[in-house]
Amino acid sequence: MHSYEKLLLANKAWAREQKVIDPEFFDRLSSQQAPEFLWIGCSDSRVPADKITGTDPGEIFVHRNIANLVVSADINLLSVLQYAVEVLKVKHIIVCGHYGCGGVKAAMSPTYYGIINQWIKNIKDIYQANRAEVDSKPTEEERVNRLVELNVIEQVTNVARTSIVQKAWAERNGPQLHGWVYGLNNGLINPICEMDAGSLNDDLYTFKNL
Ligand code: CO
Questions:
Q1: Does the active-site annotation cover 44?
Q2: What is the pTM assigned to this prediction?
């Protein structure tokens, strides 16, 4: 059997089992979705949003990219964000990085990775701005992991800086933003920052006429 055929077989078994556990499951989900959470995570195959949070289909709206970046010119991310905030009206936006992130590691190295370099330049900028603190860590692992945390904090701030979130904050006092870091070695999520509606105390990035 080819490896991909195992996936199709497992899918059949899952669908069958799901119907036994909850006969209305597919009828309910095929007519609508009402997730409470938007997840912005790393594409890394070891960090599946639903599995590590024990959530079911229908509960989390997901966007993933290399190193969980929120880039203001990324039409893909912005479309997901707008839909989640304005149509689904999610209550929480979670940016979840993970310790040992390959994208963050790559950003700290002088190696040329092709087009990926363009993407991870965003992390290089965060490294540059926090170089003294990151480089003061004694091991490479600790330096990478500190930058992983700083990257998550920066991306949460980037979410807050979008007009989409600022408009929602003005209109409905939400969503709340969360920065988390997942540990590949223990399966645990470390919550590292939070932002409530209106908490972006930065005149330069705050719109007054929304
Ligand atoms: Co990663």
A1: yes
A2: 0.95
112 assigned to some structural domain? yes
Identify the domain containing residue 127 by its residue range: 34-195
Give the C-alpha distances (Å, rounded to integers) separating 109 from 5, 25, 46, 105: 38, 47, 22, 7
pLDDT in tens, 155-202: 999 999 999 999 999 999 999 999 999 999 999 999 999 999 999 988
What total number of domains does the chain contain?
A: 2
Q: Is 101 a residue of the active site?
A: yes
Residue 179 exposure: Cα atoms within 13 Å on the Cβ side: 21
Q: How far is the CA of 28 from the centre of ligand 1 (A)?
A: 33
**Which of the residues 64, 74, 92, 101 is marked catalytic?**
101
Q: How far is CA 39 from the centre of its chain?
A: 5
- On the CB side of 19, how many CA atoms lie within 13 Å of its CA? 7
172 is catalytic: no
Tell me if residue 27 is catalytic. no
Query: If you ran DSSP here, which 8-state letter would residue 166 be given?
Result: H
Q: What pairs with residue 193 in β-bridges?
A: 179
CA of 44 to the centre of ligand 1 (A): 5
